[in-house]
Amino acid sequence: MNFNYASSGHHSIPERRRAERRVSPDLTAYHWTASYPKQEIVRDISATGVFLETRERWVPGDVISLTLQRRGPLEGNFERRVAVQARAVRWSEDGIGLSFVLPAGMDLRLWQSPLKSAAEQTDPEDVLREFRVANVLGFVQRISPQASDRVRQLLREGLSNYRVASAIEIALKAERILSFGANADLMRAPARLVERILEDGSWADADATQQLWAGLLATSCTPSGRDETNLTFVGLLSQLTAAHLRILTAACTKAAKFVSGVERLSSRPIRLHAADLSRITGSRDLLRAHRDLEHLCDLGLLTMTVRSATFSELEGTEIAPTSLGLQLYARCNGHRGSTQDFYGVPTGSLPDELGHSPILADQRPDR
């Protein structure tokens, strides 16, 4: 929001109001005073700024970090709050007006949904969602400008609400992963990879699955921006449910690995009994679990030896992640380097004489 300055006794930077202001009930803003968060009431907000009812008197031109959320204690969940920079524009007896300092490519569109009423659009969650969409568009603009138009269309009108929420989470998680790496601002990704990951990944409703899609998006970013090797992994991940991924995760994290060729990693089998499989999948439907195992094998991500069709407590199934399965898991966990390095396998390691790694009680994936 841009604020008027002609009022007598108001300290301001000359700037005309352009965007529509609206009251958003229960929306609040936190800022930090010394080391303590302080909550301020949002009197009104627009796509360009906000007015806070506060005793603070920042100097016009000062930039303040704000966290917007529903009124209440400071949220620990990143999904329920947004961080934004704002510049002080004017202050008066009842508060202070600030203008948002938005990153390049951030397309914030409050009050513009033709499918929602005015009341719905001013709900705090709806306001925060628009900020998160804008954040995603800014991120995509930075890593893949060519994908911006397509992603904007998907988030604004192409996907259902719950798929938009998933795509937002994937993109923002990927941005956080990249932020921990070197030269994050210089990393780029091919447009079709970005588009496919956000569109295909938007079906994922489990946080753990979204995190894996985010890792794949992060590892799609390289200094050149031309590496499309992750397209293979996008195709594979698109065919996996949360249950498939729990099985693959257990196999990749528990199986002992060894180097079987030039830059090729293999693993020894782990033995699963009925109770193990139920814990991993979160289901007692062992027939379905067996079908999940077969699907992973058909995709080339696991190998499996069935010792008992009934998964009895005395006999079980031996599974091992393939080299492809190990690569997929590493990429989805944000690792672009050597697969051997991701799993910490020393050069020259060999399988021992046992040929399998039984899952012990203290190694089970649910622990």
Describe the structure.
With 367 residues, this protein is α+β, with helices and mostly antiparallel strands. The chain folds into three domains: 11-101, predicted glycosyltransferase like domains (Thrombin, subunit H); 118-237, no CATH class; 245-363, no CATH class. The protein has twelve helices and 13 strands. The strands form three sheets. A six-stranded antiparallel barrel has the order 2-3-4-7-6-5. A hairpin with a 3-residue loop joins strand 3 (36-45) and strand 4 (49-53). Helix 2 (124-143) packs antiparallel against helix 3 (148-158) and helix 5 packs antiparallel against helix 6. The longest helix is centred in the middle third of the chain and has 20 residues, at 124-143. The two termini are 50 Å apart.
What kind of sheet is the major sheet?
Answer: 6 strands, antiparallel, barrel
Q: Please work out how many helical segments DSSP would assign.
A: 12
> Which runs of at least 5 residues are low in confidence (pLDDT < 50)?
1-17, 353-367
Helix content: 25-40%
Instruction: State the separation between the terminal residues, measured CA to CA.
Output: 50 Å
How many structural domains in the coordinates?
3
Average predicted confidence as pLDDT = 83
Name the structural class.
Answer: alpha+beta
* Secondary-structure element series: EEEEEEEHHHHHHHHEEEHHEEHHE
Counted beta strands: 13
Q: How is the largest sheet built, in terms of strand order?
A: 2-3-4-7-6-5
* Radius of gyration, in angstroms, nearest whole number: 25 Å
**What's the overall geometry?**
elongated
Share of residues in strands: 15-25%
